[in-house]
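**Protein fold record**
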Amino acid sequence: MKSVLVTGGNGQLASCIKDIEESLVDFNFIYVDYDELDITKEEEVQMFFENQKIEYCINCGAYTAVDKAESELELAKNVNEIGVKYLAESCEKHNTVLIQISTDFVFDGKQSTLYRESDTTNPLGVYGLTKLNGERVSSSIKRHFIIRTSWLYSEHGNNFLKTMLRLGKERDELSVVCDQIGTPTYAGDLAEILLKIMGDNNDAYGIYHYSNEGVASWYDFAKAVFEESNTKVKLLPIKSEAYPTPAKRPSYSVMDKSKIKKVFNIEIPYWRDSIKKCLKIIDEQ
């Protein structure tokens, strides 16, 4: 039985992994949140790895409050950089494969073509910078996968899709930014890929891009949520300048998924189809 450590164990991606973990019958999943394993404390991480034989570590633990990160630099750095460093060092020592979850925010959005794994990174804010530094320490060990993803949502936790469902019931009219372009990604789809990487015992280590297929703005994302959930609300497109935020966001962050599709022989669902799947699960809850 192979043991898999999943940090950020109460988050939406970890919860999606939990939903499908039984598909890997030879794997034992250990979910921890910061109260069970504080990855920012070196001794805690070292002791955990000493006491458990871990084959894979999926680091879903992250500081993801993009705007708050601008004023909470030390906290974001501790979780997204220092904590990842401690995990990476223990993974290297114990021959554990590290799967680090990263973000499209490592790019500045000034490109007009799909972002490839090899393209130049240039984060616009603290969140993207600390996640990029987390990538750098992850890539310092031999056995690592770095999976960059974007606009993650699911039936679990707090996310854009669930916020839109709530606001759609509370308000008659909503304004959503239409000039930031990327791809919504269902965490359940990403979870399946992570399990496939482990199940196939693949050793094609490196950086990969994974999001659902297609292109959308936040306005398109909201519109799809309302249409697919039959929510009646007047939706207005606005420019980013009309909704200023502490952190700058990339205006274009659509990623090229050719590499992950080829290496792992997968097909990726279209973003709108995955929204339907997620909404169906929410309806059945």
